[in-house]
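Researcher: I'm preparing a figure for a lab meeting and need a structural model of a single chain. I don't have an experimental structure, so a prediction will have to do for now. The sequence is pasted below. Please return the structure as C-alpha cells so I can convert it later.
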Amino acid sequence: MILDSFIWPLKRAGEEGGVKMEDYEKTYEEFWKPLVENPDGTLNIDQIKRELHDFYFQMENTPKVFMHVTGDKVSKPNTFAEVVISLADELREEEIEEAVQNALQSEYP
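Model: Understood. Here is the structure written out cell by cell.
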C-alpha cells in the first residue's frame, strides 16, 4: 500500500509527460520573473535574497511537518502532495484501528 502511494504520482507524472526541462523556463517567466526582476529587466538582488530566505524557511520546515504527519516515512520537501496525504491518511487509519483494538481489549479482557 505504501509503495503504491509513492508510485502513483510518478505514473501520473509520466502519463502527463513528466517534468520537462523547459518547465523551469515557464515557471520563471510566469512566477519568478515578476517577483525578482525590475521593470527594466535587471535582477532585483534584494528581492532575490528575500525570496531565497523564504525558500530556505520552507526547506527547513517542510521536512519536519512531513515526518510528523507520515510517521517518519517522508522527509523530502519536493515529495508529491498526494504521497504525503496518502501516507498521513494511512497512519491516521492505523492509529484509529490501534485505539479501537486497545479500547476493545480493555473493555472485554
